């Protein structure tokens, strides 16, 4: 069925009353075809009008004419006697009038008649018109209008019943086509229903539906309250409903089930699906076979909105196998678990918040009744609203409606009010999710809202666990209900939900001390300083940076009987804000979590019985010991952090902490020893004694059998490690950095089969590594920078898992042959005075980073080429290095700065540089032969191909690529091949005598960086070039490019390419300004003493097909996927009218270039002339004149050939 053509409607079709008007001859079809068609339209929720209810007279009534006007579609059913009815013909005239004036859709149906009889007015239709002419002799104009209407309608594509086997099939086609056309009349636009950003979300849901698939599929739409789940489901339903035999949308399922039973709601669903054929209603469990059979034969669409219990889905729908192939069920829920349980885990769409632009548009529609706010202060106020709502459509709409028509003063007042008093309507919607939580989940939600938003998930979970909550299951439930989020391992919460949580706590009581949680600094200050008891308070989080100094009395916490969490923190400061001049007698025994920055006393209160304490945090405290007397047994303590407590001299015997897992004593500079009276197998997992500078002994009787991380960083007086270290079987990380008194490692260290990282950097007195080091079968990182070792044991090659080996600044280091290190990808041997690199270096097949800077070797083993994964090679300050061999092709960066003896690089290295992406620093290599390298640079630039389409910014006029490949080389002159140069300055400007029309420019930049003494105050980060191209029409293109490789008094070279989206821009002039860019983003031109630019206009990219594969390879060589790209736009572009069209270029001879094509033609002509002269010469006689002329022609040809090659070399050949 072809769609009917109609003009664009001038009247909004959404304002019309009826979907369809049916024009028919009742006597022919009323009791048969018409009744079936009308019923089918009704089943599809298409509101159709048939005029058999109006009283018929000879003249059509005004009411019926009005009905036709108020219809979106007219269905004209041509039957045998249709044309005999003047009523029908008047309807038809009106229908075509509406098609012409309002764009009404007209669909003809030729029911058991030949369409040609209607079009040609033959057969019964011709007879009818002949009869009308007799009856209306005095009004033939009317008959003529009928004739035109019949012919006009017959020309519209419609249905011929004779070509369709059954009436049911015909009716199905008609109804489906009408449904599609009606959907097109209601596009997804924001200005009718106030929807913004819905189209993209609807498309994502439709992609999950996959309507072409014949499986029965359940799709979930999930998100927090007010996020737009119902709106999306409704839009999807209306968009696809006509593709299903039966449809049903049940809104607010949760609320409906509060009013009636699941059986009653199920029967309503079945009634809608079976179109009233559900004769077996009320059966509680088992569906009647009749119902099952009918459901199985139907392709149905069901939407259940706001489901909060998966059991309800089972009660309402039964199993998915009840429904016919291709059926779709859409469920919206705030609870993800509901959707996962019913087996739609793969098809869950999470509704995201609106972005700021969408939010502002939606808000403006409700607050200003226009898509955008006015510029100025009202827009600023609107943006404050958007910041508050954070993309929740419900909140945006509610606040927009509330502020509509109000003055600026009222807006300011309302926004200020929102900071402390949330909007009731918004909170009412959000509160429902909270009300459905159990007690454990509510407590976790309120703790996160009041204290832990933005904190690390594992830390939050541990704290909540120690407070007696089931944190793992509770947080998971909050995630499923969209009440919290986890992003980058941090616990997040929407600001509106956080405000709701705090509001719930505030409403517990008007008096702060009678609430369960306190976080407001002023409230806490008042309660503690006024000695007000707070028997209901469970948790306090006090940001001491928000108050001045305060003093507490000894009994300040005496009546906090329920307090489980106490956190006093002072971010970014070590100033003691809270003072206890008379000491502290009491802390609540119910405390599970105690966090107190800068605790001001030497001991904890003697009456504090911390039997419930799980975590103790007292960073930067004044503690000397935890208790002045014998410490009580802290049976439940798992975490203890006393870091930077510089007065701490002793901690209790670990026997007092049977469950302790993490101990942080970092920076306790007065701590002398960790003592233990008996052999004790501790459960400690992480022990950090970093910078305990007076620690000289760690007891051998403490066995960290569960220890994973052990740090003695900066323990400069620690002379020995525990002899039983080898029994710490679980240790993975051992940090001995800066243990300057440590003389040896116990051999038992090699029993640490789980050890992954060993760091002995700055252990200057360490005499060596154990010979059986290779027994550390899990070791991945070995770091020994500035240590006292003199050699690596041969067993290092047994470390099959070793990935990183760093032995920097160990003078005279001896290396064994490096074999067997299959996983090693980072090797650093910087400043070790090494005179020879092991010849089998190439066996390190996984090596990616190799640092050999500051050594004494003269050459690099040729086997380095076999390091096929090597990307970075650092050779700076290798002052005896004389030669660079062929290097791996994967290399991206070679730093050979200040290799003052380097004279040659191999030809294979040069060739490799030509065919690869490589950053090369040869600055201060004063003896290097640069000639071959300089020629290579030009050839490489010339060989660069254009980027592939995927890298281009199609919206811009051009795309610029800064190739990250740079070269810094020891010389003071700009290369001779540079087309434009300035030998005494930082800028260049020039005109192109022949304007270039190209879609691809390659640019080489060169600059000599030579700052003066007074420039030393600046930290330079890069050399930058700001340049401009000007076209014939006066448009300008401003571009920036930079290079981060530079050295004083050395030349830096780098490349950029610019790809234009068309050749309409003819470059006439160019200017370049070079700068040194500082770390403060300042641009200083005086530090650039010389500069140069080389431009290549590539004209042959599209014409030269023979070397397309080479161009593709060379294009890849540039590394566009790693280049910095930027879309560029011409300014003051006046349009194509001012440009010279490409096709008309030859009409302007004064602009015509002397191209390589002209040279080739001239050469061909001259050579042909020479051959002709030779062929026609008399072989028997010498003809000196002719011979001289031929030699002159050959000489001219050779000169032209040389000039042509020069043009090709400099990129000017076309």
UniProtKB/TrEMBL annotation:
Domain TIR positions: 16-182
Annotated keywords: Hydrolase, Leucine-rich repeat, Membrane, NAD, Repeat, Transmembrane, Transmembrane helix
Catalysis performed (reactions): NAD(+) + H2O = ADP-D-ribose + nicotinamide + H(+)
EC number: 3.2.2.6
Pfam families: C-JID, LRR_3, NB-ARC, TIR, WHD_ROQ1
Membrane-spanning ranges: 1159-1176, 1188-1207
Top EC group: hydrolase
Gene3D superfamilies, A to Z: Helical domain of apoptotic protease-activating factors, P-loop containing nucleotide triphosphate hydrolases, Ribonuclease Inhibitor, Toll/interleukin-1 receptor homology (TIR) domain
Name of protein: ADP-ribosyl cyclase/cyclic ADP-ribose hydrolase
Biological classification of the source: Eukaryota, Viridiplantae, Streptophyta, Embryophyta, Tracheophyta
């Amino acid at each position: 069925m072809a769609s009917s053509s109609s003009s664009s409607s001038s009247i909004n079709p959404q304002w019309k009353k009826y979907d369809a008007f049916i024009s028919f001859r009742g006597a022919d079809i009323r009791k048969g075809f018409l009744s079936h068609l009308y019923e089918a339209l009704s089943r599809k929720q298409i509101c159709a009008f048939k005029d058999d209810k109006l009283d018929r007279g000879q003249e059509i009534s005004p009411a019926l004419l009005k009905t036709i006007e108020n219809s979106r579609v007219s269905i004209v059913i041509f039957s045998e006697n249709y044309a005999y009815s003047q009523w029908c013909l008047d309807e038809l005239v009106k229908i075509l009038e509406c098609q012409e004036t309002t764009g009404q859709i007209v669909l003809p149906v030729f029911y058991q008649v030949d369409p040609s009889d209607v079009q040609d007015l033959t057969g019964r239709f011709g007879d009818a018109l002949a009869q009308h002419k007799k009856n209306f002799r005095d009004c033939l104009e009317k008959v003529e209008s009928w004739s035109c209407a019949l012919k006009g309608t017959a020309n519209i594509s419609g249905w011929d019943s004779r070509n369709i086997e059954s009436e049911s099939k015909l009716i199905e086609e008609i109804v489906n086509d009408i449904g599609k056309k009606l959907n097109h009349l209601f596009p997804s636009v924001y200005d009718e229903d106030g929807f913004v950003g819905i189209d993209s979300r609807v498309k994502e849901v439709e992609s999950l539906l996959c309507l072409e698939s014949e499986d029965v599929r359940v799709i979930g739409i999930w998100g927090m309250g007010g996020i737009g789940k119902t709106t999306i489901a409704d839009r999807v339903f209306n968009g696809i409903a006509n593709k299903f035999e039966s449809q049903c949308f049940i809104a607010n399922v949760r609320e409906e089930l509060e009013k009636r039973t699941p059986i009653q709601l199920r029967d309503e669903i079945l009634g809608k699906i079976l179109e009233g054929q559900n004769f077996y209603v009320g059966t509680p469990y088992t569906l009647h076979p009749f119902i099952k059979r009918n459901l199985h034969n139907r392709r149905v669409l069901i939407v259940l909105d706001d489901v909060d219990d998966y059991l309800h889905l089972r009660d309402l729908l039964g199993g998915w196998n009840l429904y016919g192939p291709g059926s779709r069920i859409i469920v919206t829920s705030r609870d993800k678990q509901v959707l996962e349980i019913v087996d739609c885990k793969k098809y869950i769409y999470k509704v995201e918040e609106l972005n700021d632009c969408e939010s502002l548009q939606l808000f403006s529609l409700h607050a200003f009744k226009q898509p955008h706010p006015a510029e100025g202060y009202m827009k600023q106020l609107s943006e404050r609203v958007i910041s508050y709502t954070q993309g929740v459509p419900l909140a945006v709409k509610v606040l927009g409606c509330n502020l509509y028509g109000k003055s600026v003063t009222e807006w300011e007042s309302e926004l200020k009010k929102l900071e402390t008093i949330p909007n009731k309507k918004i909170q009412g919607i959000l509160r429902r999710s909270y009300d459905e939580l159990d007690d454990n989940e509510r407590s976790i939600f309120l703790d996160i809202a009041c204290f832990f938003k933005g904190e690390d998930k594992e830390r939050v979970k541990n704290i909540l666990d120690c407070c007696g909550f089931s944190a793992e299951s509770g947080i998971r439930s909050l995630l499923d209900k969209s009440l919290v989020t986890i992003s980058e391992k941090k616990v997040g919460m929407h600001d509106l939900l956080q405000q709701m949580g705090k509001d719930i706590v505030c409403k517990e009581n008007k008096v702060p001390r009678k609430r369960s949680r306190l976080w407001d600094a002023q409230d806490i200050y008042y309660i503690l300083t006024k000695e007000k008891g707070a028997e209901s308070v469970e948790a306090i989080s006090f940001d001491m940076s928000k108050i001045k100094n305060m003093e507490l009395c000894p009994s300040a916490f005496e009546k906090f009987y329920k307090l489980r969490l106490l956190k006093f923190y002072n971010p970014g400061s070590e100033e003691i804000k809270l003072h206890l001049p008379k000491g502290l007698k009491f802390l609540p025994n119910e405390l599970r979590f105690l966090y107190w920055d800068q605790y001001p006393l030497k001991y904890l209160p003697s009456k504090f019985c911390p039997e419930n304490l799980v975590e103790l945090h007292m960073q930067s405290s004044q503690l000397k010991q935890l208790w002045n007397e014998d410490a009580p047994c802290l049976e439940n303590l798992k975490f203890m952090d006393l870091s930077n407590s510089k007065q701490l001299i002793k901690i209790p015997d670990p026997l007092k902490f049977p469950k302790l897992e993490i101990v942080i004593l970092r920076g306790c500079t007065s701590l002398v020893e960790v003592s233990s009276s008996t052999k004790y197998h501790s459960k400690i997992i992480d022990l950090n004694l970093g910078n305990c500078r007076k620690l000289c002994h760690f007891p051998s009787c403490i066995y960290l059998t569960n220890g994973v991380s052990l740090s003695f960083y900066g323990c400069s007086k620690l002379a020995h490690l525990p002899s039983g270290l080898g029994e710490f079987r679980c240790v993975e990380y051992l940090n001995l950095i800066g243990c300057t008194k440590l003389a040896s490692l116990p051999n038992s260290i090699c029993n640490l089969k789980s050890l992954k990282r060993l760091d002995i950097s700055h252990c200057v007195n360490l005499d060596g590594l154990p010979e059986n080091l290779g027994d550390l079968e899990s070791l991945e990182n070995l770091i020994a920078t500035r240590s006292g070792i003199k050699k690596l044991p041969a067993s290092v090659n047994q470390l099959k898992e070793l990935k990183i080996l760093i032995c920097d600044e160990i003078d005279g280091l001896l290396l064994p042959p490096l074999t067997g290190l299959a996983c090693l990808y980072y090797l650093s041997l910087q400043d070790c005075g090494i005179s020879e690199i092991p010849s089998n270096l190439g066996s390190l097949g996984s090596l990616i980073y190799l640092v050999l800077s500051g050594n004494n070797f003269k050459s690099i083993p040729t086997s380095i080429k076999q390091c096929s994964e090597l990307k970075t090679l650092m050779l700076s300050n290798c002052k005896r290095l004389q030669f660079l061999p062929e290097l791996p092709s994967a290399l991206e960066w070679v730093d050979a700065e200040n290799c003052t003896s380097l004279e040659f690089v191999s030809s294979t290295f040069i060739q490799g540089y030509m065919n690869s992406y490589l950053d090369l620093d040869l600055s201060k290599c004063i003896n290097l032969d640069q000639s071959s390298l300089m020629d290579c640079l030009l050839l490489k630039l010339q060989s660069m191909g254009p980027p592939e389409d995927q890298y281009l910014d199609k919206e811009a006029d051009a795309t610029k690529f800064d190739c990250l490949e740079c070269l810094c080389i020891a010389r003071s002159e700009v290369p001779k091949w540079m087309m434009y140069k300035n030998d005494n300055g930082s800028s260049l400007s020039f005109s192109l005598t022949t304007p270039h029309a190209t879609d691809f420019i390659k640019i080489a930049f060169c600059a000599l960086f030579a700052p003066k003494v007074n420039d030393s105050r600046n930290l330079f980060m890069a050399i930058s070039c700001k340049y401009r191209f000007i076209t014939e029409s006066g448009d300008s293109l401003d571009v920036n490019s930079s290079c981060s490789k530079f050295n004083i008094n050395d030349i830096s070279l780098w490349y950029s390419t610019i790809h234009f989206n068309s050749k309409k821009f003819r470059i006439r002039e160019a200017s370049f300004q070079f700068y040194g860019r500082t770390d403060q983003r300042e641009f200083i031109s005086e530090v650039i003493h010389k500069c140069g630019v080389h431009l290549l206009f590539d004209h042959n990219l599209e014409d030269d097909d023979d070397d397309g594969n080479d161009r593709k390879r060379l294009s890849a060589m540039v590394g566009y996927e790693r280049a910095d790209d930027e879309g560029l736009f011409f300014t003051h572009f006046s349009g194509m009218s001012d440009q010279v069209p490409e096709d008309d270029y030859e009409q302007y001879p004064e602009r015509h270039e002397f191209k390589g094509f002209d040279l080739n033609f001239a050469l061909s002509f001259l050579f042909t002339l020479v051959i002709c002269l030779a062929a026609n010469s008399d072989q028997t006689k010498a003809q000196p004149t002719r011979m001289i002329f031929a030699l002159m022609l050959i000489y001219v040809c050779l000169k032209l050939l040389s000039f042509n090659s020069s043009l090709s070399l400099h990129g000017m050949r076309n």
